[in-house]
Write a structure and sequence with these properties.
This protein has 306 residues and is of the alpha/beta class. The chain folds into 2 domains: 6-176, 3-Layer(aba) Sandwich (Rossmann fold), CATH 3.40.50; 180-303, N-(1-d-carboxylethyl)-l-norvaline Dehydrogenase, domain 2. 49% of the residues lie in helices and 14% in strands. It is built from 12 helices and 12 strands. Strands 5-2-1-6-7 form a 5-stranded parallel β-sheet. A 4-stranded mixed β-sheet has the order 4-3-10-9, covered by helices on one side. The chain is globular and about 50 Å long.
């Protein structure tokens, strides 16, 4: 397999950042965004900037047929996943490789149900401080991909190797994971902690980098994910916990995670994806996880005032 054409669905912070990166590395014609006609019209009218530079992206209508992607990246929020799955229906062939950049632990299964799990190469993106405000995307830390497969079939290995070859070609920072599910759950642990704590305390990464109630909330929420991971036979260790706390401590203090950005924009957050998922799994195993329960109720109350 050889990846020559990349399609991204979602023109949020991550989509624009990676779209800009691939376009610069591979040149025009190598990357496109797929969207409906209204989104294309809006982009044409407003444009988008990445770190102050105008992005000249190719946008194609979701109704276009006969031009499937070699690599399809989902870069939408969880509450837009179902519509994104419908938007890319003409971009998926039997050879298309699909990667989800979404937070949480469920998007690959949802996409795989629609288009086949055999097409999925699992990934986690972490360490970036990218922010989108209106049509402006900014970042100082690019972060990295963590990539891997959950089944060692020949087809899966070929798809993973194609991604590795692409990343090596363009200089994409990445780590090849032997246990990608552990990494996915570890990133979920991070998001459950930092996204929700920073939103509730209406701050930035600095808010949880210093001792205090916000940092305690972040760490206690993360520890509840470890309890669930054990129930799910996912081996998250104290070393994983310490690694992700250190990762946050090294982030740009003035940056902020996606949920805080949602709060500032007065839009619904991904609390269902984080605390909501924790609560659902807690109910499944009949255990009490009070920190995320409190977080869920608090965020819902905050959002009711928008």
């Amino acid at each position: 397999m050889n990846i020559k054409k990349i399609t991204i669905v979602g023109m949020g912070a991550l989509g624009v950042m990676y779209g800009d990166f691939f376009t610069k590395k591979l040149g025009e014609g190598s990357l496109e965004f797929v969207a409906n006609s209204s989104r294309i019209d809006r982009f044409t009218k407003e444009g988008v900037l990445c770190n102050g530079r105008s992005c000249d992206f190719t946008l194609v209508d979701e109704e276009e047929e006969g031009k499937p992607a070699d690599l399809l990246l989902f870069a939408v929020k969880a509450n837009s996943l179902e519509s994104a799955i419908r938007s890319v229906k003409n971009k998926v062939s039997k050879d298309t490789i699909i990667m989800s950049l979404l937070n949480g632990i469920s998007s690959e299964d949802i996409i795989g149900k629609a288009y086949g799990m055999e097409k999925i190469v699992h990934c986690v993106v972490q360490g970036m401080d990218v922010i989108k405000a209106d049509n402006k995307v900014t970042y100082s830390q690019f972060g990295q991909f963590c990539i891997g497969i959950t089944e060692n079939t020949l087809d899966k290995k070929k798809r993973l190797q194609a991604v590795i070859d692409l990343f090596d070609k363009v200089g994409m920072p990445y780590t090849l994971e032997e246990d990608i599910k552990r990494r996915v759950w570890s990133k979920f642990m991070l998001n459950v902690g930092v996204n929700q704590a920073v939103m509730i305390y209406e701050g930035t990464y600095k808010t949880v980098q210093k001792p205090g109630k916000a940092r305690e909330l972040m760490q206690n929420a993360m520890k509840e994910v470890i309890i669930l991971a054990e129930k799910e036979n996912i081996n998250i260790t104290k070393e994983d916990f310490d690694y992700y706390v250190k990762l946050i401590d090294n982030m740009n203090p003035d940056g902020m995670p996606s949920m805080r950005q949602d709060g500032l924009a007065k839009r619904k957050s991904e609390v269902e994806l984080f605390a909501g998922t924790v609560i659902a799994l807690a109910n499944k195993y009949k255990i009490d996880l009070p920190v995320n329960q409190w977080i869920y109720e608090t965020v819902r109350e905050m959002e009711s005032k928008y």
